[in-house]
Amino acid sequence: MLYRALFTILLARISAETAHHLGFGALRFAMWFPGIRALSRILLRPRDAALETRALGLVWPNPVGLAAGFDKDARGPEALGALGFGFVEIGTVTPRAQPGNPKPRMFRLVADRALINRLGFNNEGADTAERRLRAGHARRQTLVGVNLGKNKDTAENDAIADYVNAAEKLAPLADYLVVNVSSPNTPGLRDLQAVDRLAPLLRAVKDVVARVVPERKLAVLVKIAPDLSDEDIDAVADLALALGLDGIVATNTTIARTGLHTAADRVAAMGAGGVSGAPLRERSLDVLRRLRARVGDRLVLISVGGIETADDAWARIRAGATLVQLYTGFIYGGPLTARRIARGLARRAREGGYARVQDAVGADAGPSARVTTSGGTSDS
Question: Under CATH, to which class is 2-379 assigned?
Fold first, then answer.
């Protein structure tokens, strides 16, 4: 209640991006004190055996993570982990630092519990992210994924080199990697989702990971847009299976503006950008269901988009997601959101007769079916 009152009275009078920097800065400052950080972990990190999840060769303390975009430069994954997130995905990180698009570039749609952003991969570059991750690596208690992208001024034909360069630096410090080809705010990026262009990119990233992290199996996933056609979703799923990818993150923000409660002229005045939050809920769930029907349990699916409550997260788990991520739901819900959702998941699992949340993954996906993919025919 206090957070909601503060959000309404104070933060709504500050630009969304400024509010983000102030709030995240205050959190990092508070967690700089070991006592506060330890107390937060005790009070806010859910400790329930039902939440433990095994996937991608890792043990996740709970399946509720923070999506990429909040901590772009690895400034505070441990501070965020102390709030109860089971994992934090940093980035998107590009090889070279870049300022992103001109401000203002982030807007609240309060009536829709949504955001519009056209940040444009503003970040300090792979060298800075590497330095920060390396500095805290030995003491790290939070699982950290790294989301990779290309620089805005990199020609589309040279995009593979950008992903490879960033992966070389960050793979040794990551718990998993995500190849982001789905942001609407970098010109030409979404064109990389076309299978003929995506295949060599994913192969190159997998090759560099095998080379720089030979001592362990580091998972590589791809993040896709909600605006893909059903046929393109199937094609990406088939490609992921054929290449031996580990999973898919679905979905990024949408360029659609349908079904919003905010006045159309006000939305139009905000300009281009991706919509995140509640308006994305149904489409993101639809994409997840289609992916599960296509790949079964052969890939780990991470669902993101419009998740605000334990009911939202539980629906994604039952639809086939092993892990879920928040971003806008965290902005609107406040610092207790991750704990609240994780504890709600444990409760729903027990009410449903499951020993663990993970046991419910895909429970609503229906009977297994034969699926023909570019990698052959197999059960899913």
Answer: alpha beta
Choose the catalytic residue: 183, 284, 303, 380. Answer: 183
Q: In what order do the strands lie in the sheet with 114-117?
A: 106-109, 114-117, 274-277
Domain residue ranges of the chain, discontinuous segments joined by +:
2-379
Residue 285: CA atoms inside 13 Å, Cβ hemisphere, count?
Answer: 19
Look up the pTM and report it.
0.93
Alpha-carbon distance 195 to 98, whole Å?
28
C-beta atoms surrounding 185 within 10 Å: 24
> Is 380 part of the annotated catalytic residue set?
no
> Tens of pLDDT along 224-240?
999 999 999 999 999 99
Instruction: Please measure the distance between the N-terminal and C-terminal CA atoms of the chain and give it in whole angstroms.
Output: 44
When pLDDT is cut at 50, 70 and 90, the band that residue 40 belongs to is confident
Tens of pLDDT, residue by residue over 289-318, are 999 999 999 999 999 999 999 999 999 999
